[in-house]
Amino acid sequence: MTGREYDLREDARSLVTGQWLKSGETLRAFAPTGRGNYRSEIRGYPSAPWRAMTATGWAVAKLASPLGIVTGGVPYWNELRRFEGHPPGLIAFGDGRACQAARVLGTGPRKSGIWILTRERFGFAAVRVTSATKSPDGLRRSGDLSIVLEALIEVPSTQFDFEDRVTRGDDTYLRIRFHDGSGLDLHAFSRR
User: Fold this and answer.
1) Most buried residue, 72, 114, 169, 172, by CB count within 10 Å?
2) pLDDT above 70 for 22
3) With bands split at pLDDT 50, 70 and 90, how would you rate the model's confidence at 111?
4) Are β-strands 183-187 and 171-178 bridged in parallel, bridged antiparallel, or unpaired?
5) 153, 108, 146: which is closest to 130 by C-alpha?
6) pTM
7) What are phi and psi of 114, to 5 degrees?
8) What average pLDDT score do residues 20-40 get?
9) Which residues contact 11 (CB under 8 A, 6 or more apart)?
10) 35-69 as b/e, with b when 16 or more CB fall inside 10 Å?
C-alpha cells in the first residue's frame, strides 16, 4: 500500500499491467477516461435527437453541480471534471449504426475506465472501487480501497488492422480499422 489516494490517470498503467495484460501480451497504448469520454464521428450514430438530449443533460448537470456537491456527489463530479478539457480517449468513425465500430461500442461505456490497445486485442475495462476485503487482488490505495478492472469491451486483433499513428489537431491517436472500413482512434496517452 502506497498511502496515496487513488487517481485513475496516475494509476492507469499499474491497473493495465497488473490486471488486463495476459502473459506475453504487449501493450501498445492506453487512455484513461471519465464516464462516456469518447467521441462518435460515425455518420448517423448516435442519432441527432440522442446527441441533443446528451448535450442538454450535461448542461443541466453543470448547472446542478452545486446541489450535487451539497448532497454528496463530490467524487462523481470531481471525476467528470478531471477529464474535462482533455481530448477524448477514443474517437469512433464509420458509416451508420450497422458498421463494426458502432456495434463494438454499442451505446458506449457509461463508467470510468481505460481504453486499451495491445498487439492481441482492443478493449475497454471499467474501474470498480471496492473494499480490499472483497477484492484482495485489486490495486491497493490509501485506506481499505481496492481498485479492480472489469472488461466491458474486448475485440481480438483478428477483427481489426492496426494502421499506425494519426494526428487530430494537436493530438496523436493510434488507429485501428475494422474490415468494413470503420474504425477507432485511441488517444496516445502512453506508449511502450
Assistant:
1) 114
2) yes
3) confident
4) antiparallel
5) 146
6) 0.76
7) -135, 125
8) 87
9) 139, 141, 147
10) ebbbebebeebbeeeeeeeeeeeeeeeeeeeeeee
